[in-house]
Amino acid sequence: MRWLPLLVTLSLLAALSSGQPVGKPSVIWIYDCSASHHDHLAPLPMERFGVGFRPIDPMVQAVVDNLGQGTEVRVLSFGTGLKLSPGWVRTRSELSSAMDCGDTLNGPSPIWDAVYRGVEVLEERAGPRAILMVTDGKSSANQHGYQETLARSQQASVRVNIGFARTELWRTSRKPVTLNANRPGDPAERLKKLADGTGGRYAELSVWDLPGFFADVARQWPK
Q: Which residue in 7, 42, 55, 202 could disulfide with 195, CB within 3.0 to 4.6 Å?
């Protein structure tokens, strides 16, 4: 037992030398509630999907099932302004309940402002920090710019993971998403660069395939 304090000290030194914050892991889940995207939070027709099913629900399940038990999550929605959930949660029911656009429903897509705010909140946490973001549109109506947001995320050692959700299947009146991060000058190009520049991951997938992407991200998160 007399070696225990030494082992703890060595563990802390190892964590510090690796550049990773010491403490419980924390995640901010940023959700796009703008006019083009909030349908992912709305229940779908009962006869096809079952009572109260939302496309976001499988994503919530995937994240909760694969994050470490000590990881805490907080939800930040954006659209007509930003909305931060009241507190940090751990369970599926708590996280699902926190997925509420509230008065941010519709409006523009201040993506950079949302990430910047998420980083500010995470800076108050001692452990490893990451952002998960679901969006389907280009950024607009921001107070903070892309470069400023990227720099702030890098300085705070926050990994930004972005799932770009393509619209399809249940909303036939909406045009399909045509953004492409690999096309120079495309608005999605900066989303991918933000993820790559912070050590996070980026994927352009059907909303039905995003749970697998977020499950993979969560599995690689510190336990």
A: 202
Query: What is the tens place of the pLDDT at every residue in 73-131?
Result: 999 999 999 999 999 999 999 998 998 888 877 788 899 999 999 999 999 999 999 99
The tokens describing 146, both together, are 């892309």
Length of the chain: 223
Alpha carbon 15 to chain centroid, angstroms: 24
What is the value of pTM for the model shown? 0.83
Which amino acid does the sequence have at 57?
Answer: D
Q: To which H or E segment does residue 57 belong? A: helix 56-66
Instruction: Name the maximum alpha-carbon separation found in the chain.
Output: 69
Residue with tokens 């608005």: 187
β-partners of residue 65 are none
**Which of 126, 120, 172, 174 lies closest to 143, judged by CA?**
120
- Cβ burial of 199 (10 Å; 0-12, 13-18, 19+) is middle
User: How many other CB atoms are there within 10 angstroms of residue 101's CB atom?
Assistant: 21
Spatial strand order of the sheet with 158-166 comes to: 81-84, 72-79, 26-32, 129-135, 158-166, 202-206
Contacts of 56 (CB under 8 A, 6+ apart): 31, 40, 41, 96, 99, 134
